[in-house]
Every structure is written in C-alpha cells, then in structure tokens.
C-alpha cells in the first residue's frame, strides 16, 4: 500500500511540474488543442478511456485531428482516415512503438509481441505468424468444437452459470484457448474446468493499480524502472512454469502437434531466430516463448468473451436478427449432423455478419495508440508530429461516426453482407487494428467466437429486451459491460 501511495504522490507532482510543458505545441501549428490531459480525465471519471477519446472525436466533426496531451506527452487524436492509414500502414516504421514502456525484469510484458523495440518485435512476429495459417487453424478447430460442446453442456447442467453470462463466456474462451492454441493439457476431461481461468481473469480485469502502473510508466519511465514495477509480475511463476512443464513433457515424448507449443518446439530446434534482412538475432528461450503464449492467452480470452457478450446483448434486443440467425444455424447443424468443422464455420455467412456488426458497435479494443519514433509530417494539413509524440486512433469514435456508418447506433448486420464489404470505409473498420501490427490471432478469434455462438444458439434462444448502456466499465483497453445480462431460454430442439 505504501508503494501505491508513494507512486500516486510522485505522479501528481510530475503532473504539476509538466502540465505546462509544450502547452501551446499544437496551437502553434493551427491545430485545435484541448486544455485537459486525457489520461487524467480518464482516471478521474467512471468510464472507459475509449469513451473519453470518442467525446473528442464527436465534438470536433470538422477537424482532421485534435491536439491534446496523454499524461505530459503531446498527443494527436486522429479523425481523418488518410492519417489513420499513414500511422498504421504507410509510415508504420515511424509509428511502430505503442508508447507503453515496460521493465526488462517483467518477463511477460517486456517479451510479448507488443514490445516496443522494432527489431525484436519484427523477428518474433515473423516467427510466430505460421501458427495461424489455414492448415494450423483447421487442426485446431476440432479442439474448439469440443470446447464449444462442453460449454453448452455446462450451461445446461449448471443453470446458475446463465445468471452470470459474461463469466460463462469467459470460461469458454479461456478453456478453448488453453486447449487449442497453447497445447496445454489440463488433465481434465471437461475442457471448461481450466486451471487458467483465475489467472486469465485477474490479468485483464480493470483495476486502479493497473491503471496507475501505466500512468507511472508514461509520466516517468525512470521512476517506473526504479520501482521495478511489473504489469503481469504476479502471473510469471504460474504461467511460465506451466509452459516450461509442457515444453519439457514434449521433449521427453516428441510428437507432431499443430499448436503453439509445437511451433515453440520447432523454433527452439531451429536455434537462434534471425531476421535475414538486418542480421538481428534473438534466442527462443522458454521465457520468451512463454510470454508470447501469455499474450495470446490474455488478449484472446477477454476480447473473445466481450465480442460474444455484446453480440448476445444485441441479439436479445433485435429479435428479427436473432430469428434469421437461428435459421442459418439450424440449417447448418442439420446438414452436418450436428458437427462443426473449419469449412462449416467458414460457411456461416450471416453469423459472420452479425459478429462483424457487434465488433463495429463495440470494438474489442476501443482505441489504438502509437508513439512517433521519428519526426514526420502527416498528409492532411501538413501538421508535424515530433519524435516522442503520441497519436491516438479513436476506434470507438470512428465506428460510431454517422458519416461512415449511417444510423450508427442501429444494429444492422447487413452492413457486412458480402455485397457491401467493398463499401466499408478504408481504415474505418478496425476491430483487430490494421497494418503490420494487425492482430495476429484475428482468424483464430473469429473461429472461436463463431463456434461458441453457433453451439450456444443451437440450444438456446434469448428473451427479448432493450439493451442501451449509458457507459462502459473503467477500462484502459476495452469496452466492457460484464454485469449486463440476458436470459437464455432452452430451445425445444434441445
């Protein structure tokens, strides 16, 4: 507790010292500039930071971007999609840094694919990409299928689980990722009884301490290092130990398995990882590979559960959409004798449209942040972004922009009909990000979510309601409304 109090005091002092630094930096470039610090605004308010950025987006409809500050750092909140494309793709190497700093003693946070060091990130990304090829995903689908079946049986046999639907969904995403991506044998017959559930939940649940750590990291990296703070330190022994155990078991009993652990074995067998274009080298240690597994795990469990949760909330509020989706799901299950394969999941066209629309209204990550690594001029307005400045892509604001999506608050899956895909705004639909840092596991995520919802809605329907959230939970990353509920009703065919 004393460390937290000390940190709060230091952060406040630093804010007072730096609050006037570069106070007119954006005004000098004729950019509309906010006076308040956006991160401190978030800390003081009871809502997500994505909503804070959406307000900036909505309140400046004629501006290509708005200047402000994130902690003491000059920040530019982007509205123009050409500028978004520049940051995420065209000038990626000038914006590869996420602007989040970790300590090198933080074995999980400092070694994940979100690391800031470009060469290390690039090398790891190149070597991990093969885990999500179509052939690998096809091999994982049977595990997802088993997990989805166990998920529905859990709901049928434990009615109390339906009273906390988000917890049930989180149990499914945790168990299915543990079983299919990481190859971690839970030694439990029912995949829903995952030993990783508690760790996963604690890793992503919003908290004051976590938000404070990110604030200290941004305000004073020096203090962050001196305090040797760790974002995920409490999970190191459990998770790294679990992955080490599985790696050791595989070494003693070699087998060809198309999962994350199998890829880890291949990387370690090949020796030093090398970027041929630069000569950069990196050793595939157990700790480094465990960190990649941890990142996919915590990122996939929460975003997957949130996507399923918001999809079901919208389906409960749109009975016509629910009816049409039931018809597609029933037809597919009857044609395939109740068995889901990779190709069957891929053929759920309307289900894919429904999920895509849910991710538009409630993007899994509400904003994207990048730190400028070298001075650059944006293509619209010729504003100069200096090295060390922050740029923010307000995904939630973009997804609810009526100029991009007419009647944006309406849940309309037809926006994502195959015939309408070409009409989507370029770099205006960002549920998984875009450019070279687009989510590596996006294809796996869709399979996981589609399978879970397909099995769930084959057995259950939803009681009609009118879901209209006033605000979302106080989260630094995602849009969350974990206490929202819907009533699952067992269907006659079950």
Automatic annotation (TrEMBL):
<dbReference type="InterPro" id="IPR036396">
    <property type="entry name" value="Cyt_P450_sf"/>
</dbReference>
<keyword id="KW-0472">Membrane</keyword>
<keyword id="KW-0349">Heme</keyword>
<comment type="similarity">
    <text>Belongs to the cytochrome P450 family.</text>
</comment>
<protein>
    <recommendedName>
        <fullName>unspecific monooxygenase</fullName>
        <ecNumber>1.14.14.1</ecNumber>
    </recommendedName>
</protein>
<keyword id="KW-0732">Signal</keyword>
<keyword id="KW-0479">Metal-binding</keyword>
<dbReference type="InterPro" id="IPR002401">
    <property type="entry name" value="Cyt_P450_E_grp-I"/>
</dbReference>
<dbReference type="InterPro" id="IPR001128">
    <property type="entry name" value="Cyt_P450"/>
</dbReference>
<keyword id="KW-0492">Microsome</keyword>
<comment type="function">
    <text>May be involved in the metabolism of insect hormones and in the breakdown of synthetic insecticides.</text>
</comment>
<keyword id="KW-0256">Endoplasmic reticulum</keyword>
<dbReference type="InterPro" id="IPR050476">
    <property type="entry name" value="Insect_CytP450_Detox"/>
</dbReference>
<keyword id="KW-0503">Monooxygenase</keyword>
<dbReference type="InterPro" id="IPR017972">
    <property type="entry name" value="Cyt_P450_CS"/>
</dbReference>
<dbReference type="Pfam" id="PF00067">
    <property type="entry name" value="p450"/>
</dbReference>
<keyword id="KW-0408">Iron</keyword>
<feature type="signal peptide">
    <location>
        <begin position="1"/>
        <end position="15"/>
    </location>
</feature>
<keyword id="KW-0560">Oxidoreductase</keyword>
């Amino acid at each position: 507790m004393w460390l937290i109090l000390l940190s709060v005091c230091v952060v406040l002092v630093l804010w007072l010292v730096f609050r006037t630094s570069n106070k007119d930096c954006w005004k000098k470039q004729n950019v509309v500039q906010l006076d308040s610090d956006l991160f401190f605004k978030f800390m003081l308010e009871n809502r997500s930071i994505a909503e804070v950025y959406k307000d900036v987006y909505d309140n400046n409809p004629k501006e290509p971007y708005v200047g402000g500050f994130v902690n003491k750092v000059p920040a530019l909140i982007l509205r123009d999609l050409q500028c978004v494309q520049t940051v995420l793709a065209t000038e990626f190497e000038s914006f590869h840094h996420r602007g989040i700093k970790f300590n090198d003693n933080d074995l999980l946070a400092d070694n994940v694919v979100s690391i800031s060091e470009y060469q290390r990130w690039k090398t790891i990304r190149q070597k991990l990409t093969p885990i999500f090829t179509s052939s690998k995903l096809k091999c994982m689908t049977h595990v997802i299928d088993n997990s989805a079946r166990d998920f529905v049986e859990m709901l049928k046999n434990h009615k109390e689980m339906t009273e906390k639907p988000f917890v049930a969904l989180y149990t499914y995403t945790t168990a299915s990722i543990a079983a299919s991506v990481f190859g971690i044998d839970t030694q439990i017959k029912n995949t829903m009884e995952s030993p990783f559930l508690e760790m996963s939940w604690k890793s992503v649940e919003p908290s004051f301490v976590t938000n404070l750590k990110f604030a200290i990291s941004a305000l004073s990296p020096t203090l962050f290092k001196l305090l040797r703070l760790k974002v995920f330190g409490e999970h190191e022994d459990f998770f790294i130990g679990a992955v080490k155990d599985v790696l050791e078991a595989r070494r003693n009993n070699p087998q060809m398995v198309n999962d994350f652990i199998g890829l880890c074995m291949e990387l370690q067998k090949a020796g030093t990882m090398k970027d041929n274009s630069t000569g950069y080298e990196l050793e595939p240690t157990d700790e480094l590979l465990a960190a990649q597994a941890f990142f996919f795990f915590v990122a996939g469990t929460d975003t997957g559960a949130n996507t399923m949760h918001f999809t079901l909330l919208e389906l409960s509020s749109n009975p016509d959409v629910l009816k049409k989706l039931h018809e597609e799901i029933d037809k597919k299950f009857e044609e395939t004798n109740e068995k889901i394969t990779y190709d069957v999941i891929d053929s759920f066209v309307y289900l894919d449209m429904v999920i895509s629309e849910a991710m538009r209204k409630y993007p899994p990550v509400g904003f994207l942040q990048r730190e400028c690594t070298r001075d650059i001029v944006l293509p619209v307005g010729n504003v100069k972004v200096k090295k060390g400045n922050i740029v923010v892509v307000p995904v939630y604001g973009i997804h609810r922009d009526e100029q991009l999506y007419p009647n944006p608050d309406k849940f309309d899956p037809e926006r994502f009909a195959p015939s309408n895909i070409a009409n989507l705004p370029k770099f205006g639909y960002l549920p998984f990000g875009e450019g070279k840092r687009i989510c590596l596991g996006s294809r796996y995520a869709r399979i996981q979510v589609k399978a879970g919802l397909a099995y769930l809605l084959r057995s259950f329907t939803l009681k009609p309601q009118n879901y209209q959230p006033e605000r979302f939970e106080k989260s630094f990353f995602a849009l969350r409304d974990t206490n929202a509920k819907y009533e699952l009703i067992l269907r006659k065919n079950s």
